Amino acid sequence: MSKPVLSLKGLHREYDVGDGRKLTVLKGVDLAVMPGELVGLIGPSGSGKSSLLHAVGLLEAIAEEPKKGRRATSQAVVDELLIDGGDFAKANDAARTQARLHKIGFVYQFHHLLPEYTALGNVALPQRLIGRPQKDADARATELLTALGLAERLEHLPAQLSGGEQQRVAVARALANRPCLLLADEPTGNLDPATSQQVFEALKAIIKAQGVGALIATHNLQLATHMDRVVRLEDGKLVEIKPETA
Ligand SMILES: Nc1ncnc2c1ncn2[C@@H]1O[C@H](COP(=O)(O)OP(=O)(O)OP(=O)(O)O)[C@@H](O)[C@H]1O
Question: In what residue span(s) does the ABC transporter domain sit (predicted)?
Answer without folding.
Answer: 6-245
